[in-house]
TrEMBL record:
The lineage of its organism: Eukaryota, Metazoa, Chordata, Craniata, Vertebrata. InterPro entries: HATPase_C_sf, MORC_ATPase, Morc_S5, Znf_CW. SUPFAM superfamilies: ATPase domain of HSP90 chaperone/DNA topoisomerase II/histidine kinase (SSF55874). GO terms for cellular component: PML body. CDD domains: HATPase_MORC-like (cd16931). Residues 412-464 form the CW-type domain. This is DOP1 leucine zipper like protein B. Residues 510-519 have a biased composition (Basic residues). Residues 477-492, 723-734 have a biased composition (Basic and acidic residues). It is found in: Nucleus. Residues 520-557, 701-719, 735-746 have a biased composition (Polar residues).
């Protein structure tokens, strides 16, 4: 305790208890072992092999760790056994893992209470001991570490320096090795390795930690080539930072098997680990995955991208998550992130590999300090992992759309096969198709099928640089965007198609309207008389409604009910459409669509506004409806006065009436509909209806008659009051509407509408006809103010009861009326058929009688004319066809033929010409030959003449010498004669020669002759 510096300031001391305290950071035993492996792996040791084994020394279970690294000298061993000394430095770019210089102490003291280190370097051997038992036994107040160093094996005795004697004595006394020989045997164990360096370090730990049951915390028996942690021991480990994934009960194999853990301990393993004599097949984890994709994480706090490798585990789909390394050393294994933490089966089987040198590991190197950086990293990893998972799934679905097997459940093989050379420890990439599991236990570079890397002297294949490799393309994102776009387009298309449908429907409705008009006109022409009688009957029926103002509520109620009925969207829709049927051209497309759709949800009021201006009279019932649903200020429409008067009445009961009548009325109607549809019309009509009807009948017929008189048979289709026409119209509309609503509305609703419309017409009929009667009353007290007076509950109840009664009564009346209507309709049909028979008979008669009438002849004439015209047309057509044929059919051929003929003609002409030319040529050649002959004869003549001239000259010269005067004149005359002869001869050759001009005294003619003779070739014409 007296240790102090030279100046007397005391040194800090370290209690032996600290050895235990220091070791508690390793809750998980493998993390303690990893520290020992790290020490050997570090560049200052740079061991190539590391052995982990269980040994028995003097009957005690021990763990032994041995490397074939550089070994330790006295000083480095002292530092190794001391605290806080870490002068580890990077060697050849390899950074040391041990940063705290605490690995050996914390690691070894976690595994057992005592440890002894044997080391052999090139020159000396060292033995050191770190033993809690020893410190306890000697009662040490401070940690003391016996260390000895000695020359490499000179004898079988250890000779140490004097000051190390105490250390040697304590080692021999307190360690398991009691003699020099035993200690030296351990040193020899180091050199017995296959390593050529014959150096290394050997650690033996005894007094192993035991569980509460007294057994060691390792299971050495289950697998004789492995060191495992029994599950009960693992469960005892309660540290939250233990490498167990808290989200699942699944324990990765690497957590309980040392062999498995060692295989992934380093991102890029440079050292072989032998667990219990068998090589650990270390994994190049980032390269042992399937469907590998490289992504990048760019932290905000760093200015560089961190690569992340994603892939599927090829061995077990249960082992997945992020493998987080720090300086090549595994910190966190299978850390589940993002979607993997949720129970949605997302990200199953996916492994991410990242080296987080920017994060700080905790002291036990099993986690990172929970900083903001760490959390950000984990979040980002979660996002990127889900992206990868989506991408691979998207791609797999694209490859095989019918596959239902998740990617994680399919058989996968690593994208690449890498194997480590047992000699140089370099990793070599094997060609595809080689099963790594079938390779020999010891593999060397010279076994490499790839000749480029078939030697231990060849450097490892360079890894792709992180910077120039982009992250993988996330195509599924693009697809998602496209899908969104497509959906939008599809929606637009559907909308367009909808418009198209509406267009066709519009056209159909127009066609129907035309048909309807035609039918109406036919009907009018056929039965004007019948119509009047029919109108009478209709009036009779509607009269009791017309009576309404006079009689108490009972007469009103039908109106109320029908109104409420027509509140239904269907009838509202009808209104909207009917206006269209009447004036389809004037109704633009858009408003109709608007009226069509809101009709189902909006109040009918808006619908009415849409349609009323086109067909005012048709909307009477709607107006009532309006008053019932939403009290409105009075309508200034003239024809609706009576309605307003009713409104006043009904408004008093609005809140209640609406509530109960709504449903009831609808039920009534549908019930009535069913009845009316199924039962044949009976002749039974209630007596009261009939009698009351008569009162009005007296008035109405006159009105109708005046109307009828005025217009008689010439009623136009536009007269809105014609009941028959209206009915036809109705039917027409129903048909049209049916086609409109096929998709959206059921048949039953349609039928209901049909009947409701019947009601509406009845009302309408009554009101319009009743105008004359109820005209005056209509203006009385129709103020909207009455709406706001609410009667008390009793009154209301009473009123309600009354109304219900009324309703029932009215419904009965209505049914009766309906039956009547049926009856009348059948009568009408009867009448119509009779009328038709009659008219047919008449037509027959008339055609019989009027055989010779004007019209008949006219007809005949017309027929004749028409016939003629048709014939004309047929002829025209035939002519045209013929013309067309002559033009079109042969034309193309003829043109060609003409062309060919023309060409052949030309050719023949040319051939003829050629023949002619040939003939001409022959003639010319003949001429030429003749001329040639002539020429030769001439030339011969010329020669002859020359010869003669020569002779004459010769003859003349001697004579001229003897007889100068006489012979001279003779010779010259002879010469002149000759020249004259020659001249005559020459004339035949040279026609231009005028002999009269030629002077024969001189030699002109001789020269000409000369010229002719020499220039024959040129002068003769061809
Ligand atoms: Zn090699």
């Amino acid at each position: 305790m007296a240790a102090q510096t030279d100046r007397g300031v005391p040194l800090s001391t370290l209690s032996p208890k600290f050895l235990h305290t220091n070791s508690t950071s390793h809750t998980w035993p493998f993390s303690a072992i990893a520290e020992l492996i790290d020490n050997a792996y570090d560049p200052d040791v740079s061991a190539k092999q590391f052995w982990i084994d269980k040994t028995m020394v003097k009957g005690e279970v021990c763990l032994s760790f041995m490397d074939n690294g550089n070994g330790l000298d006295h000083e480095t061993m002292h530092k190794m056994l001391s605290f806080g000394y870490s002068d580890k430095m990077a060697v050849n770019g390899l950074e040391p893992i041990g940063i705290y210089g605490n690995g050996f102490k914390s690691g070894s003291m976690r595994l057992g209470k005592d440890a002894i280190v044997f080391s052999k370097s090139k020159s000396i051997s060292c033995i050191g001991m770190l033993s809690q038992t020893y410190l306890e036994k000697i009662g040490a107040k401070q940690i003391i570490i016996p260390i000895i160093s000695f020359e490499n094996k000179k004898s079988n005795r250890i000779s140490v320096k004097e000051k190390q004697e105490a250390s040697l004595k304590d080692i021999l006394q307190y360690s398991l090795f009691k003699s020099h020989e035993e200690l030296l045997a351990e040193i020899d164990a180091i050199t017995s390795t296959l390593s050529s360096t014959k150096t290394g370090t050997r650690i033996i730990i005894w007094n192993l930690r035991r569980t509460s049951s007294g057994s060691t915390e390792f299971d050495f028996d289950r697998d004789r080539y492995d060191i495992r942690i029994p599950s009960e021991v693992y469960e005892e480990l309660s540290d939250p930072s233990r490498p167990l994934n808290r989200s699942t009960s699944y324990v990765p194999e690497s957590v309980i098997s040392l062999r498995e853990y060692c295989s992934i301990l380093y991102l890029k393993p440079r050292m072989q680990v032998m667990v219990r004599g068998q090589k650990v097949k270390s994994q190049l984890i980032a390269k042992s995955l399937a469907y590998i994709r490289k992504d990048h994480y760019k932290p905000t706090f760093l200015d560089k991208r961190i690569p992340i490798i994603f892939g599927y585990n090829t061995k077990s789909k249960d082992q997945y998550g992020i493998m987080m390394y720090h300086k090549n050393r595994l910190i966190k294994a299978y850390e589940r992130v993002g979607c993997q933490l949720k129970a949605n089966m997302k990200g199953v089987g996916v492994i991410g590999v990242i080296e987080c040198n920017f994060l700080d590991p905790t002291h036990n190197k099993q986690s990172f300090n929970e900083t903001d950086k760490y959390r950000k990293t984990i979040n980002s990893l979660g996002t990127k992992l889900e992206e990868y998972w989506n991408e691979i799934r998207f791609r797999k679905t694209k490859e095989d759309p019918n596959s239902t097997v998740p990617v994680e459940d399919t058989m996968k093989r690593p994208d690449q096969n890498w194997v480590q050379c047992d000699s140089c420890l370099r990793w070599r990439k094997l060609p595809d198709g080689i099963d790594v599991n079938k390779l020999p236990d010891k593999w060397y570079c010279l076994l490499n099928p790839d000749p480029q890397f078939r030697s231990c002297k060849v450097e490892e294949e360079p890894e792709d640089s992180d910077d120039d490799q982009p992250s993988y393309r996330k195509t599924y994102k693009q697809q998602e965007r496209e899908n969104k776009k497509k959906q939008g387009q599809k929606f637009e298309q559907e909308e367009e198609e909808g418009y198209l449908d509406l267009d066709t429907l519009d056209r159909q409705s127009k066609a129907f309207k035309r048909q309807h008009n035609k039918l109406t006109r036919q009907l009018q022409q056929v039965s004007p008389n019948y119509l009047t009688s029919r109108a009478d009957s209709t009036l009779r029926r509607s009269s009791n409604i017309t009576q309404a103002p006079g009689s108490p509520p009972s007469s009103e109620s039908p109106l109320v009910i029908t109104n409420v009925c027509s509140l239904s969207a269907a009838s509202a829709t009808l209104r909207g459409k009917r206006s269209q049927v009447v004036t389809p051209q004037s109704t633009p497309k858009r408003p109709r669509v608007n009226g069509f759709q809101p009709g189902a949800s909006d109040t009918p009021v808006s619908v009415r506004i849409d349609s009323s201006d086109t067909d005012e009279t048709d909307d009477d019932d709607i107006v009532i409806l309006e008053t019932a649903s939403t009290p409105k200020p009075k309508q200034p429409v003239g024809t609706l006065r009576k309605v307003k008067q009713e409104k006043e009445e009904s408004e008093n009961q609005i809140p209640m009436v609406l509530e109960c009548t709504d449903d009831a009325a609808v039920d009534e109607t549908s019930a009535a509909t069913a009845e009316a549809e199924t039962c044949p019309p009976t002749a039974v009509a209630s007596a009261t209806t009939q009698t009351t009807a008569f009162e009005v009948k007296e008035e109405q017929p006159s009105q109708n008659q005046t109307e009828g008189n005025g217009e008689t048979a010439s009623r136009s289709g536009s007269t809105p009051d014609l009941p028959v026409e209206r009915e036809v119209k109705k039917e027409q509309q129903n048909r049209t509407e049916g086609s409109y609503e096929t998709a959206s509305r059921s048949r039953s609703i349609e039928r209901e509408i049909k009947l409701e419309r019947g009601d509406g017409v009845e009302n309408h009929q009554g009101e319009t006809l009743g105008n004359g009667v109820a005209h005056m009353e209509s203006d009385e007290g129709a103020g909207p103010s009455s709406v706001l007076q609410y009667p008390n509950i009793d009154e209301v109840q009473k009123q309600q009861d009354q109304l219900v009664e009324l309703m029932q009564e009215t419904a009965q009346e209505r049914d009766a009326l309906r039956e009547q209507l049926k009856l009348l309709t059948s009568q009408l049909e009867d009448m119509q058929s009779r009328l038709q028979e009659q008219s047919q008979a008449k037509v027959k008669e008339s055609s019989h009688q009027a055989c010779q009438t004007d019209t008949q002849t006219d007809y005949k004439g017309l027929f004749e004319r028409a016939k003629q015209k048709i014939n004309d047309l047929i002829r025209d057509k035939e002519a045209l066809l013929a013309a067309n044929e002559s033009k079109s059919n042969p034309n193309c051929g003829q043109d060609e033929e003409n062309d060919i003929e023309e060409i052949s003609l030309k050719v023949s002409r040319l051939v003829q010409e050629l023949d002619e030319r040939n003939k001409e040529r022959e003639e010319l050649r003949l001429q030429l030959d003749n001329l040639e002959e002539e020429k030769s004869t001439l030339a011969a003549q010329c020669e002859e003449l020359k010869l003669r001239m020569q002779q004459q000259r010769e003859n003349a010269q001697p004579s001229a010498g003897s007889r100068t005067s006489g012979t001279n004149s003779d010779a010259s005359s002879c010469l002149i004669e000759l020249r004259q002869n020659v001249g005559r001869l020459l004339v035949s050759r040279v026609p231009a020669l005028d002999l009269a001009q030629v002077n024969f005294e001189c030699n002109v003619i001789d020269e000409i002759l000369e010229q002719v003779l020499t220039g024959t070739d040129f002068d003769f014409p061809g």
